[in-house]
Amino acid sequence: MRRIVLWTMSTIAALVLLIGYRTSTMGPAALASAGDYTAGTTTVTGTGPGVGTFAGDTVQTRWGPVQVELTLDNGTVVGATVLQHPTGNSTDEQVNSRALPILVNHTIGTTADQLRAHGVDMVSGATYTSEGYQQSLQAALDRAGSGTAAPVVGDATTARRTTA
Amino acid sequence: MTVDGTWRAVEHVMGMPISIALRGAHAQSSRGLRAWSRVMEDLRHADSVFSTYRDDSVISRVNRGQLALGDLGDAVGTFVASEVREVLELGEQARLDTDGAFDVWRSRADGRRHLDPSGVVKGWAVHRASEHLRQLVGTDFCLSAGGDLVAHVAEHDRQPWGIGIEDPGDPTALLARLELRHGAVATSGAAHRGRHVVDARTGRSPVAVAQVTVISDDLITADLAATAAYALDDGAITWLGRQDLQALVVWQDGRSEQVVPARPPARRTDKMAC
After folding, report:
1. Most buried of B10, B219, B255, B267, CB within 10 angstroms?
2. What pLDDT band is residue B190 in, cutting at 50, 70 and 90?
3. Chain A residues in contact with B261 (beta carbon < 8 A)
4. Which of residues 153-172 of B touch A (CB under 8 A)?
5. Distance in angstroms (rounded) separating the CA atoms of residues B215 and B232
């Protein structure tokens, strides 16, 4: 199990680099191979064998440190998050000032209070139609904040309209 | 009304909800409210020009052969003509970037081509409309159009906006959360509307990919890229990496993958008048 996790992490770290960094202005344009990286050890926070979140050690690459976290369910990788990725010049830091998405992967509640307690101000999802919106998490947030001051104004002429 | 100092409102245009959250100096001021009105005015204007669901829109008239793209200026004025040109140029660039998987031109059954710029218009219109909010001094905003959003934090000592990304398998659950001070997040998938995005070359809906979220400096880039990567299906990750974009891709089997850029994405909007 542990060996599989280690192998998967090093592979994912290499894949992330292959995909994300091959046009980097910092490094050579040539594609890197998986052999350029050494796998770290894992920190297991799961509840049983093959279940939970596994944070890999920080791995040094030629572009900088990379750390990957895997979420396993019954031995299957269901999520991979890059916890750390290289910084080193100003343009990279500019991009990295945007936080990477951290996998939550569970229901944190459907009320505005529950969402805000988890630091969620807005929700990004596949485009809501005006009809589908009413049941969405975003609607819960909007309802809690708008009260009667900003009534929902439907637009009957375009209500069936959807855009990508 | 504000909760925790955040003022929120929602209105509907283009068949989708437009949600706003404001914090800071103009969260409740008349200037803040005026800026929000202008955002909605801009979006209603964009709908009147570009909607394929309105018979009287410029695009519908072009599709019926009543207006020619070549001399739009005489018929609808130079301002609207320049807007149409700008949107079609963005569509053409996206077509080139995706080897034709994304295309604002569609072929009808009778072989005639017609325009459907919907995939470009939302990101373009919301990006532009958000400028009204950016001019509110000392005010943070988050503006979402049907789940695609622009975020801005005016002061360094303020919290970033917390953005939840929906789980495509369960719209009442969140898959991920991220923090954003300046930038845009767009998500494309079938969760709320069934299968609507197709590869323009084949007419096929994605089968391997469930949802694509792109995080970028501006909503034009994020919205186009999320739609294009989703249409590219199992080619999404490779394409997003090549475009140097930051993204979260969810597959139909529930796996998710992140793409991390090495340098800032090409800023297509720098030269645009806002």
Report:
1. B219
2. confident
3. 20, 95
4. 160-168, 170-172
5. 18
Q: How far is B118 from chain A (nearest CA, A)?
A: 5
Domain with residue B249: its CATH number is 3.10.520.10
Inside any domain, residue B107? yes
Tell whether B265 is covered by a domain.
no
Between A and B, how many CB-CB pairs are < 8 A? Answer: 299
Nearest to A142 among B4, B8, B260 (CB): B8
Q: Please report, as a single letter, which amino acid is at residue B149.
A: L
Q: Where are the domains of chain A?
A: 2-96, 107-146
The two most distant CA atoms of chain B are separated, in Å, by: 59
pTM of the model: 0.73
Instruction: Give the range among A72-81, B111-120, B195-204 with minimum mean pLDDT.
Output: A72-81
Q: How many CA within 13 A on the CB side of residue B175?
A: 30
> Nearest Cβ partner of B215 from A25, A98, A127?
A98
Three-class SS of residue B124? helix
Inter-helix orientation angle B78-97/B219-231, to 10°? 40
Mean pLDDT by 10 residues, chain A (164 residues): 53 45 31 34 49 68 63 66 57 49 76 89 85 86 65 36 35
**Residues spanned by the domain of B115:** 2-259
How far, CA to CA in Å, does B116 sit from each of A40, B113, B140? 49, 10, 33
CB contact under 8 A, B9 and A150: yes
When pLDDT is averaged across residues B213-221 and rounded to a whole number, the result is: 96
Cα separation values, B74 from B42, B69, B70, Å: 22, 11, 10
For residue B266, the model assigns a pLDDT of 46
Of residues B44 and A39, the one with the higher pLDDT is B44
How many domains would you assign to chain B? 1
Is the CB of residue B98 less than 8 Å from the CB of residue B7? no
- The answer as to whether B185 is a domain residue is yes
What is d(CA B260, CA A87) in angstroms, rounded to the nearest whole number? 12
Does residue B60 lie in a domain region? Answer: yes
Distance (Å) of CA B96 to CA B64, B92, B103, B200, B228: 26, 6, 9, 12, 11
In this structure, are residues B167 and A105 in contact, taking their beta carbons and an 8 Å threshold? yes
Instruction: Provide the ipTM.
Output: 0.89
